[in-house]
Amino acid sequence: MHPLTNEIGKFIPSDRIRVTRYDPLVRTPFFRSVQVPDEIRNLESFTIIQTASADEISKVLKLANIRKLPVYVRQGMGVISPDVTRPEPPGSLILDLSKMHWINPNFDRHHVEVGPAVSEWDLNKALHPEGYGYPELIGPVTWCGSLVSLNSSGRSVDPYIGKPRNYVLGMEVVLPTGEIVETGSESLRRVCGFDLGQLVIGGQCMFGVITNLRLQLLKSPKDICGALVHFDSLASLGKAVSSIYKNHAPYPQVLEILNRSYLEAMEFEGKISEAVLMMATDGWAPGEAQWKQEQLIKHMQSEGCIDVEIQSSEDWAKLLLFREAGLSKLSPKGLVMLTGEVMDYPIDKLSIVLPAMRKLQLELMETYPGIDTYIIGHIGAGSFHPTVVAPVEWGYRKLHEVVKDCRKKILAFKLEHGATIGEQGIFPEHIGWYQGTYDDVHWKSMQLVKGALDPNGILNPIRYSHMQEANALP
Ligand SMILES: Cc1cc2nc3c(=O)[nH]c(=O)nc-3n(C[C@H](O)[C@H](O)[C@H](O)COP(=O)(O)OP(=O)(O)OC[C@H]3O[C@@H](n4cnc5c(N)ncnc54)[C@H](O)[C@@H]3O)c2cc1C
């Protein structure tokens, strides 16, 4: 039993406290079928506390400070790879915020207040009938609390859509010491100057737990126009995307890359070429989305695309589902995704880094016969995922070793070509990149800020400590 369970039991009912076996992997569809050896599964169990309010979280954190015991907030990220084990070590106390689910729009003030457990999908479903909605940031199942805590995005094109930070007007936050604070404002005019909330946004739960979010409402676009754009090489696709910005072409709302190996492995039923763009534009005025699409198609044609297929709205919806469900075809084939690392490049480098990455992937396939590799991702902002899949029958330890080596080589590539990290969070998943990119001064400054707000280092400590151990098996 966790040393805090009895005291927490005095203010949280027992049906909201549970103990679960340790598992180094987050059981998303990717890793559902991977068998973890018993000697790992038998490590100390997790204690999960379902907290329903800022007050309850405050009480737990105050107790944890008295006893100097760490507290984690429900977190995934294990989906990135089996060599990045769960951020919570065995025996952890984890707060599960799933009960904190409310959606309170205030149309007069043009904002909506949401609980941290509201998913992107829930929020859009509630707002669409009123003509509001957010572009997809990470994906339907991601919660607003974690979305803002990571300040991450996915399929959305950053120069157009921005990051979650751009939509946050204010928050309620429980600081690591248990005090409850309000940040930001009720106004549509964002706070100028120092704003404590900006540390929490993207802070990966190191500086506080978000217990309420005030988001600016966004009007849903009236039209969305989709198309598939085909290229005969990754290099020519990269060149066409690079010059969208320089040539003043309209911003796409969605611009995803899918390479041939991915489309073939996922049994895509339409036309397949070396490199394909899924491209969508949106608009509010009549004809606006279509005009943007025409401009972008002219741009792609002048850059040498080999074919364009305009999609009806039904076909575009099917394509989005295909992209969303994407890797679900792996499991029936006995394959598991090992890593979908994130590469975010300066936009003018795409025509070089895309083919160079494919070359590296083919080398990995020679080193480890049985793996397969794809390139997919959010290329509109220079982002893509070199994806590696392997037979699940290899078992946890071999999968772990193979992915560790693949990620090492991918990291070297990433640093060599100057990639940044625009999604999936930094700590501890991308420690190698962080250490290779920034100096010690950067790191020490961050630790000083953490120490000031969390003097006992109890909130999500893996996010800032034990850097060298983060990728080690427990
Ligand atoms: C199919 C799929 C596609 C994905 N695509 C993308 C992508 O395009 N871009 C991308 O960035 N990632 C992507 N991911 C990874 C994704 O970011 C992680 O799985 C993420 O952890 C999902 O969020 P979650 O709601 O499960 O949050 P959690 O895993 O619960 O939390 C994530 C982080 O936020 C913190 N946190 C959670 N709630 C709060 C809170 N209330 N206050 C403060 N901190 C909090 C946690 O401590 C943790 O550090 C993808 C994952 C999957 C399965």
Detailed description of the structure:
By secondary structure, the protein is of the alpha+beta class. It folds into three domains: 5-98 and 452-469, Uridine Diphospho-n-acetylenolpyruvylglucosamine Reductase, domain 2; 103-216, Uridine Diphospho-n-acetylenolpyruvylglucosamine Reductase, domain 3 (2-Layer Sandwich), CATH 3.30.465.10; 222-423, FAD-linked oxidases, C-terminal domain (Vanillyl-alcohol Oxidase, Chain A, domain 3, 3-Layer(aba) Sandwich). It has 15 helices and 17 strands. The strands form three sheets. Strands 10, 11, 12, 13, 14, 15, 16 and 17 form an eight-stranded antiparallel beta sheet that branches. Strands 5-6-9-7-8 form a five-stranded antiparallel beta sheet. Strand 5 (103-106) and strand 6 (111-114) form a beta hairpin. The two termini are 20 Å apart. The model is unreliable at 466-471 (pLDDT under 50). It binds flavin-adenine dinucleotide.
Average pLDDT figure? 92
Number of helices: 15
The set of bound ligands, ions and cofactors reads: flavin-adenine dinucleotide
CATH architecture of the largest domain: 3-Layer(aba) Sandwich
Distance between the termini: 20 Å
Number of strands: 17
CATH superfamily of the largest domain: FAD-linked oxidases, C-terminal domain
CATH topology of the largest domain: Vanillyl-alcohol Oxidase, Chain A, domain 3
Helix content: 25-40%
Strand content: 15-25%
Largest sheet: 8 strands, antiparallel
Structural class: alpha+beta
Please identify the top-level CATH class of the largest domain: Alpha Beta
- Poorly predicted runs are 466-471
